[in-house]
Write a structure and sequence with these properties.
Blueprint: H1 7-35, H2 43-64, H3 75-99
Helix pairs in contact: 1-2, 2-3
């Protein structure tokens, strides 16, 4: 077995996925803050938009790199992807509104 294969490789991929999730969340939040300087969206509208942007920012690169295949996901997999992104979107929009 080569170095980095097996269990160690899986742990590295999982850690990289989490790190990229943080980067995506920070990037989407920063972009939203810069874009919203001139106006304001209600939280009910901004939350799903931020969720969709965060999902695209994480799922599209993972799909392009063949780390995952969303076409093969079950309903439970989709729900486990959508729910945290929605929580992120509504939280980010709410915090932005509170800080303004």
């Amino acid at each position: 077995m080569r170095l980095g294969e097996g269990e160690d490789e899986e742990h590295r991929e999982e850690a990289l996925g989490a790190l990229l999730g943080y980067v995506t969340g920070l990037g989407v939040g920063a972009a939203y803050g810069l874009a919203r300087r001139g106006g304001d969206l209600p939280v009910w509208a901004a939350g799903p938009l931020l969720a969709a942007a965060a999902m695209a920012g994480s799922d599209l690169p993972a799909t392009a790199l063949k780390v995952t295949d969303p076409t093969a996901w079950s309903l439970a997999s989709w729900v486990s992807d959508i729910v945290p992104h929605l929580a992120y979107g509504f939280t980010a929009a709410s915090v932005y509104r509170m800080l303004r």
